[in-house]
TrEMBL record:
Catalytic activity: Co-precorrin-5B + S-adenosyl-L-methionine = Co-precorrin-6A + S-adenosyl-L-homocysteine
SUPFAM superfamilies reported in the protein's UniProt record: CbiD-like
Source organism (scientific name): Chengkuizengella marina
Pathway membership, UniProt: Cofactor biosynthesis; adenosylcobalamin biosynthesis; cob(II)yrinate a,c-diamide from sirohydrochlorin (anaerobic route): step 6/10
Protein's UniProt name: Cobalt-precorrin-5B C(1)-methyltransferase
């Protein structure tokens, strides 16, 4: 008999470390090897949260002029695309003065404005950039060395890994980003997803987009692209379950119009004022769906069936069987009203509900000042 797999409690999940922390540790090991001409098996750094952590080096090579050290990124129990990636730092003496930090193979380069890194620079975010610069400066001072130093961070598999991320959409080409504000990776953290949403919105707005398509998932986003083929790629944002956060971020960035694209399950919650639509955040309110159906000339037997339904999709199927388009349009109306309430108006909101196969069920637009 096959043993049933049990899911870990989030509290018991193992934290990992960011690409920024790995790059900092690799830099410390490489510079130390260069100065002392000795192989470094590990490097201990202080994370932004104040915690000291030692990183094992999987490689360390050096000569009199340059040294390279690398560590394998451990994402802990988080399903991170960069888990297991080799993060390398190559440190070499330079003819100039000061410290030069850049990205090499597998580290993306920023091509669109709106990100926390300037266009043309390697995608090494501000906190990791500061960490690497500070650890380099500290070692040089402690060793009383006044030479110029060049640091290059690279990720051999970075270009392939980047295909699993949103980097290309954000205008980061050629590899991954070196990220991390805490130094640690919290398993299934919502903060990382929210940060990617905020970055995507900022890139879109900076590119001049005043109409954004906010999709709950990949299929919905694809459907939105089919409905709005003339909008630029930056205008399409995958918001996942974070409807309220995404709407508020759009409002703060003065986006004029948003189009919500999703399916019955999650939008049944949005219509009822629930703005975090994860399956565990709030159950489907079938009495609410029955109330909406009652406004759309649905008979009493069907109303009772709606109240005892198992899923929102089942309710949608009932309405499809009765060819009741008014129900879906009304549900879209309630989604618009809930969204406008969430952001205190002054925005145009469109809601589109589709099936899993990309069939349009309902559509409604409401503008509020």
């Amino acid at each position: 008999m096959q043993k049933k797999e049990t899911k870990k409690d989030p509290k018991d999940m193992r934290h990992g470390y960011t690409t920024g922390a790995c790059a900092t540790a690799a830099t410390k090991a490489a510079l130390t090897a260069l100065i002392f001409q000795e192989t470094q098996k590990e490097a201990t750094i202080t994370l932004p949260i104040g915690k000291q952590v030692s990183f094992d080096m999987s490689t360390c090579e050096f000569n009199e002029d340059t040294a390279t050290a690398g560590t394998i990124k451990d994402g802990g129990d988080d399903p991170d695309a960069t888990h297991g990636a080799l993060i390398l730092s190559t440190v070499s003496w330079s003819m100039g003065s000061g410290i030069e930090l850049d990205g090499g193979i597998g580290v993306g380069r920023v091509t669109k404005p709106g990100l926390p890194v300037e266009v043309g620079r390697a995608a090494i975010n501000p906190v990791p950039f500061k960490m690497i610069m500070e650890v380099t400066q500290t070692i040089l001072q402690q060793s009383e060395i006044h030479k110029g130093v060049r640091v290059e961070i690279s990720v051999p598999e970075g270009e392939e890994i980047a295909k699993k991320t949103l980097n290309e959409r954000l205008g980061i080409v050629g590899g991954i980003s070196i990220l991390g504000t805490r130094g640690t990776v919290v398993p299934f953290s919502t903060s990382a997803f929210k940060a990617s949403i905020a970055h995507a919105i900022n890139v879109a707005v900076t590119a001049g987009c005043d109409h954004l398509i906010l999709a709950t998932g990949g299929r919905s986003e694809k459907f939105g692209m089919e409905l709005y083929p003339d909008l630029p790629e930056e205008a399409f944002i995958e918001m996942g379950d974070f409807v309220g956060f995404t709407l508020k971020t759009c409002k703060n960035k003065k986006v004029k119009k948003v189009t919500l694209v999703g399916m019955m399950g999650k939008f049944s919650k949005v219509a009822n004022g629930v703005m975090m639509v994860h399956s565990k955040s709030a159950p489907i309110d079938f009495n609410f769906l029955a109330k909406v159906a009652a406004e759309c000339d649905v008979d009493e037997i069907t109303l009772e069936n709606i109240k005892t339904a198992n899923t929102a999709s089942q309710v949608g199927d009932m309405m499809l069987e009765q060819n009741n388009k008014k129900f879906f349009d009304t549900l879209c109306k309630y989604c618009c009203l809930s969204s406008l309430k969430e952001v205190n108006g002054d925005m145009e909101v469109e809601t589109i509900i589709s099936t899993l196969k990309g069939v349009l069920l309902g559509r409604k637009t409401i503008h509020s000042k």
